[in-house]
C-alpha cells in the first residue's frame, strides 16, 4: 500500500506495477487530496511554472514542452492526472489516512471515514504540505497571519506593511512578488541568509548531508539548511534594492509591531510565515518509529525503516525534491517487492 500520490507516491506505484504487482488487487495508492496533483494543487496561482524549481519527469512520462507562464498548480496537477490514467495506477483520492498500526506482520490502515484496510507493506509518501511549521515568539500580534500554504497572492496584502519570516526560497520569492505588486515588506531570518552559487557537485553534496542525518535517526534539516539560497540575477537585484536584506531574528511581537533582537522595532500590519514544513507523519505515530531526536532511522538504501521491516519512506530526507522522490519511488518499490516475495502471504 502506498500512502500519498505526489511525485514519490506515483513513482513508487509505477515501479510496483512494473515489477508485476496488479493494480487494485496487489497494491493501491491512498491519497487525501480530492484529485491529482499532490501538494502542487494547493500552490498559489501566482506561482507560475517558470518560477518554480525544476519539476522532474515521472518514470516513462516526460514533463516537457510546458507553458512556463501557467500556474504550476494547474500544470503539475494535469500532468499527475494524466500519469495516473496513462499508467493505470490504482489511486484512490479523498482517502485520508488517520492511523497506521502493525501487528503480527500486518499493517492496519485506518481511514478518516472509519474504514480500515490491511497490507503487508507500506510505502509512505505523505510529504510535508499539511504540516506547516508555525514558530512561537513572545508577545501577541493582532493582525492577519498567513503561512506559506495559505498564501493566495499579493492581493491578500494590498495596502499593508508585511513582515515576511523565514530564510528559505519561499520567503525570498514572496518578497520579490510582493514588492513588485507595491506591497511594503520587511524580512526576518534567524541567521544571516546563506546565498550560494551551485557547484557541479552541489546536488551530490546536499544528498550526502541529508542521508547522514536520516541514517542517524535525526530529523532532516529544512530545505534551505541543506541547500542554501540560490543567488540568481533576480535575487541579486532584490538584494541590491534593499528588499532582501534581513533585519535579523524576532525578539517579540506587539499588537501591530515587530521588535527585533538588535533592539529596533517596526510597525507592521500582517505577517507571512514562510517558515517551512515538517514531515506529515502523525498517522504513523502508533508505529513508534520516531527516535528521541525526532527523526526516523533510515537504512543505507535511503528508503527502508530500520526498526520495522516492510515500512518504507519516500519523499523523506534526501528524496524530498521531485528528482529525489522519483528515484526513491523506484528504490522503495524494489525493496517492497523483495520483502513481499520473502514473507508468507
From TrEMBL:
Q: Which domain of life is it from?
A: Bacteria
Q: Does the keyword NADP apply?
A: no
The alphabetical list of record keywords is:
Oxidoreductase
Oxidoreductase listed as a keyword: yes
Q: Which GO terms describe its molecular function?
A: flavin adenine dinucleotide binding; monooxygenase activity
Name any one Pfam family assigned in the record.
Pyr_redox_3
* Entries under PANTHER family matching the protein: FLAVIN-BINDING MONOOXYGENASE-LIKE PROTEIN (AFU_ORTHOLOGUE AFUA_4G09220), FLAVIN-CONTAINING MONOOXYGENASE
Know the name of this protein? Pyridine nucleotide-disulfide oxidoreductase
* Natural source organism: Glutamicibacter soli
Lineage, highest ranks first? Bacteria, Bacillati, Actinomycetota, Actinomycetes, Micrococcales
